[in-house]
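QA checklist item 7 of 12: single-chain prediction sanity check.
[x] sequence parsed
[x] length recorded as 200
[x] structure emitted
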Amino acid sequence: MTFIVLAGGKSLRLGRDKALEEIGGETLIQRVIHRLSSLGTDIIVAASRDLPLPPGVKRVADIYPGKGALGGIYSGLRASPSPRSLVVACDMPFLNLALLRHLMELAPSFDVVIPRVNGQLQPLHAVYSQNCLGPIEAMLHEDRLKIAGLFPAVRVRYVEDAEVERFDPQKISFFNINSQADLMRAREMVERNLLEHVGG
């Protein structure tokens, strides 16, 4: 399994590069890579700009620039040496390793394994197989950029709320940072968690 971190967003709502914002002493991109490195070492960052990355982490630029997250998934999958890749966004600071392992365990029988949380699909927290490349490329050529448009063309396993809650009852895995308020909340959550761990 290869791990693909999407870091191509323009961070318009935050007004600056959120991948480089710090939470708990690490940038968001470092934090996500650090979590994923507990699961494996083959990590690709899909980003069209230079980012400070740990040794061994490969950066790939968009093959089809300006095509949003779908273009990032495609570029990451094209660079991936694995039959399947776990895709996450760089702005998800609270990835749950047990849930990610569960998605990976389900993956061999499907082309996409994707959580559906409170009725919302989570395409930037999902596993994709190499079989998705052809359909995604066709979508990109037609400028159909909604990731959900891929799913009728491939074998999909939806991971519903009750299944997610076995691993992540609070569904904090899917908390992502779009605004200054989100960033402040994430920092408070990390601080509180650290305090709890030292008995504070």
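[x] summary fact logged: The domain at 2-197 is CATH 3.90.550.10 (Spore Coat Polysaccharide Biosynthesis Protein SpsA; Chain A).
[ ] second reviewer sign-off
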